[in-house]
Structure formats: C-alpha cells, structure tokens
C-alpha cells in the first residue's frame, strides 16, 4: 500500500491587510467618562441645533414674505391686463 503525504504549501500574500482596532466605549480620559461632561455636551448640541433651526425658520419666513410680495405684484399686473382687455 502506498500512502501519499501531502505537504501544505503557504503562498506569500500579495499585500498585507491592515488591522484596525476600535474601542466600543469612550474610555480615553476621565473627562470623557464623567456624566456631567456628557450632559454638558448634549446641552451644547441641543442649543446649537435649536439656534440652527431658528435661523432656518427665519430664512424660510423671509422667502415666504418675498414670494407674497411677488404674488401681489403679479395679481396687480393681472388686474391691469384684465382692465385693458375689457376696454378693448
């Protein structure tokens, strides 16, 4: 009986894959772990978002006012054209 012994060949890799290590929690410093810091950070974020939303609403209101002025001008123009059409 003949037995075959197969040798395992290892081929060299064409490139090395980088290993990335990520941490799941914010445990880098004592400040990052404190609850007071998290509350303060959330308060700042909420304040920023509120201010940003107020700015966006102000811009939208200004656009609505501009469109209303434009609409009034077009209505006047339409009324003038209707008067001209009636005279003719």
From TrEMBL:
Q: Which GO terms describe its molecular function?
A: ATPase inhibitor activity
Q: Which residue windows are coiled coil?
A: 50-84
Q: What keywords are assigned to this protein? A: Coiled coil, Mitochondrion
Does this entry carry the keyword Flavoprotein?
no
Q: Mark out the compositionally biased spans (Basic and acidic residues).
A: 38-47
Instruction: From the Swiss-Prot or TrEMBL record, state where the protein is found.
Output: Mitochondrion
List the Pfam families hit by this protein, alphabetically: IATP
Gene3D superfamilies linked: Single helix bin (1.20.5.500)
Instruction: Read off the InterPro entries from this record.
Output: ATPase_inhibitor_mt
Q: What is its main location?
A: mitochondrion
Region (Disordered): which ranges?
Answer: 18-47
Superkingdom in the source lineage: Eukaryota
**What is this protein's function per UniProt?**
Inhibits the enzyme activity of ATPase.
Q: Which family does it belong to?
A: Belongs to the ATPase inhibitor family.
Q: What is the name attached to this protein's record?
A: ATPase inhibitor, mitochondrial
What organism, scientifically named, is this protein from? Galerina marginata (strain CBS 339.88)
């Amino acid at each position: 009986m003949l037995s075959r012994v197969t040798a395992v060949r290892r081929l060299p890799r064409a490139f090395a894959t980088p290993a990335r290590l990520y941490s799941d929690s914010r445990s880098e410093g004592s400040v990052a772990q404190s609850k007071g810091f998290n509350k303060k950070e959330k308060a700042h974020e909420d304040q920023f978002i509120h201010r940003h939303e107020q700015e966006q609403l102000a811009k939208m209101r200004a656009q609505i006012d501009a469109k209303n002025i434009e609409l009034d001008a077009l209505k006047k123009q339409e009324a003038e054209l209707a008067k001209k059409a009636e005279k003719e």
